[in-house]
Amino acid sequence: MLSFLRKAESQFKAGKLLYENGYFNDSLSRLYYALRSIAVFLIGMPPKGKWKHSALMKKLVIKLDTQKILPLSREERQLIKRFPNERERADYEPVEVSKEKVEKYIQLVERILKGVEHHVERDNKN
């Protein structure tokens, strides 16, 4: 499962590179999949079939809270809740995602990624 955390790191870096080069829709998509990889790392594979995006994001919020991995603000919870739809719009609709929106998601995913990495390091020391 640790490979999902490494995958998330790679997806996050790709998302930042795309952002830095002005590809905001593609950046948002990569950032979403970075968060999805973090969620699969923490929660595991679905009991059967595959995860529904919104259900996985809901489980991620619960896991971060119940395991005291990272406290989330109300705004962060809302961003996570809307992320699957935002990613879908960015990928499939003729819309341009704003730079400011991508910046919020970069901050969110980076904070969660660092929190999870810190949690893993702390667990490995114990």
Explained architecture:
By secondary structure, this protein is mostly helical. It has a single domain (2-125), classed as Four Helix Bundle (Hemerythrin (Met), subunit A), CATH 1.20.120. The protein contains five helices and no strands. The chain has helices spanning 2-20, 24-43, 53-66, 74-92, 99-125. α1 runs antiparallel to α2, α2 (24-43) crosses α3 (53-66) and α3 (53-66) runs antiparallel to α4 (74-92). The radius of gyration is 14 Å and the shape is globular. The two termini are 19 Å apart.
What's the CATH class, please?
A: Mainly Alpha
> In terms of per-residue confidence, which ranges show pLDDT below 50 for 5 or more consecutive residues?
none
pLDDT averaged residue by residue = 95
- Relevant CATH superfamily: Nucleotidyltransferases  domain 2
Total DSSP E strands: 0
Shape: globular
> What is the distance, rounded to the nearest whole angstrom, between the alpha carbons of the first and last residues?
19 Å
Into which percent range does the helicity of residues fall? over 70%
Which structural category do the helix and sheet elements fall into?
A: mainly alpha
> Would you list the SSEs in sequence order as H and E?
HHHHH
Number of domains: 1
| Level-2 CATH architecture | Up-down Bundle
The radius of gyration over CA amounts to 14 Å
CATH topology tier name? Four Helix Bundle (Hemerythrin (Met), subunit A)
Taking the sheet with the most strands, its summary is:
none
